[in-house]
Every structure is written in structure tokens, then in C-alpha cells.
Amino acid sequence: MTKTANILHFDPKGPNGLEEWEQMDYASLVSGEPVQRGHLYHEIEDQGYMVGVWDCTAFTEQMAPYTVDEYMLFLEGELTMVLPDGAEIEIKAGDAFVIPKGFECQWKQTGFVHKIFMILDGDVPQAENASLRRITVPDLAGPSGADVSTTRTDFLNAAGNMRVEVQTHGAVAQTQRTSAAHELITVLEGSLQLFDGESPHVFERGDTAYLHQGDTAGWNTAAGTRLIVASYNSGG
């Protein structure tokens, strides 16, 4: 059979461990001398796009506009996002959240954190939707045993090319499904099988898959499968 897709399994520790990344400018921080490590699974440098895994020791940033659109799924640790009015949003392991580019906030972590991420550092056109005025924390709970497919969009960036959805699927078998965008897919409940023309790739609860835009893959889900999907349409 001909291979039709490049299906990636996101290992939270990277394929060969995480590499230490460039040191942050400690002088620009409120506190901390963080050590950050990571691995990029896919990058489109000229579009400011990247997906990967990252971990870091404690630090607190200044209150400032966030410099990118970023989707994150926390694997370990805790984080407090502080808003200009003093309100705080608590993030813990197992939570997903999205910060829109230009949103003023302060990152405050008191210990080690580990996350999966999708970042887009693109132009910010004039746009208006509710998810541009908040830090979005999707509700990842849902009914079990669903036999229908539904999609709820929780975040859409200003350019309309990056979104985060929570999907529920029944028992579905698709012999061919072409990805309309680069897709970062984490299984919240149930199971997902992707077929690349050579062999099945099985993703269970807590596993994360990645499909490149234009990939064609078989797609099977068990009844009651829930997914959180962050996607980026790079055009073309």
C-alpha cells in the first residue's frame, strides 16, 4: 500500500528527550531564573507557526500583551494567569487553554510545568469575537457513550486560521479523510485510529496525534470518543 499521511505521535518527552532551549532574559522577569526545555514536532518558520512540547522551572513574567496566539494542554504543574484587574485564572495539569495574541496578562508559575503547545505569531487583523477578549479554558467534560458527532468551537483567532474545538464522535469509520489544516489532536475519552496506508496508529485517552494539512488518512473512532483539536490552516 502507498503511504498517504505522515501521522505523528506526540511523545511528551520528545522522541529523544527534550533539549535545553535559549535562556530567557532574567532581567525582564518579575522573578525566577527559569530553565526551559522543549522539542518542536513541526515548524513553518516564515509563518511564525510551531507545535511541540515544553517544560520549564518557576518564573513570573511582567504584565504585558501576549506576543502570540497560543494553545496549550498542561501535562504537569500549575499556573496562575493574572489579568490587569487583578482577577486570576488557575490552570492545572489536564487543563487546556488558549491565549490570544495581544491579550494583556501575566504568566505566574511557582514550580515546574510541562505542556503541549501550538503557537502562531502572525498578523492580527481587525476582528471581533468573544474568544479574542479572554483566556479561553475549554470545558473538557462531556457525556459518555455518545453515538453522534458534534463539534464545539471554543477559540478562533483574529485571522480566522487557528481554532480550537472539542469534538464528540460516535462509532465512525472513514476510509479517507483529508486534513483541511494542520491538526493537533488529543484524545479525552474513547479511542481514535488513524490509517496512513501502511498500518493503523492507535490513540487512546491522553494520547496526542498530529496530522499535516493535506494529509489523507483513514479515521475510525469508538462510540463516545471526545477529542480536543487545535488546528492551523496555513493556506495554499
From TrEMBL:
Secretion signal, residue range per the UniProt entry: none
Pfam families: Cupin_3
Superkingdom per UniProt: Bacteria
Domain (S)-ureidoglycine aminohydrolase cupin: residue ranges: 51-117, 172-224
CDD domains assigned: cupin_TM1112-like
Protein name per Swiss-Prot or TrEMBL: (S)-ureidoglycine aminohydrolase cupin domain-containing protein
